[in-house]
């Protein structure tokens, strides 16, 4: 499994536009076979930083999603929303993997 961590610098005055962008991508990532873990918006502290996390079963399936999203009309509309509203100033993308081999607690009952 591969998890993608996105850190966004957003325009705080365009938070509603960014929220709409996020709502669209949660549905799109899930439609393309990923698992979206959500968008995390400013609350306390920095008012212009947001995060998103989503996972795909493998790097190969993520790469297929990236290629397919370039020709998907709904993805193109989401890209256009961000471009036209300028709600995103910049973003950083990181690829993470889960720590394997961690013992899970047992539930007795």
From TrEMBL:
Pfam families: NIPSNAP (PF07978)
Signal peptide (UniProt feature, chain positions): none
Domain of life: Bacteria
SUPFAM superfamilies in alphabetical order: Dimeric alpha+beta barrel
Positions of the NIPSNAP domain: 8-100
Protein name: NIPSNAP domain-containing protein
Native organism: Streptomyces clavifer
């Amino acid at each position: 499994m591969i998890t993608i961590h996105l850190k966004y610098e957003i325009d705080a005055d365009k938070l509603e536009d960014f929220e709409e962008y996020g709502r669209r991508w949660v549905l799109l990532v899930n439609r393309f076979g990923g698992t979206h873990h959500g968008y995390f918006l400013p609350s306390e502290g920095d008012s212009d930083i947001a995060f998103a996390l989503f996972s795909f079963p493998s790097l190969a399936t993520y790469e297929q999603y990236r290629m397919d999203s370039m020709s998907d009309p709904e993805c193109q509309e989401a890209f256009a929303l961000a471009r036209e509203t300028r709600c995103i100033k910049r973003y950083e993308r990181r690829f993470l993997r889960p720590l394997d081999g961690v013992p899970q607690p047992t539930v007795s009952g």
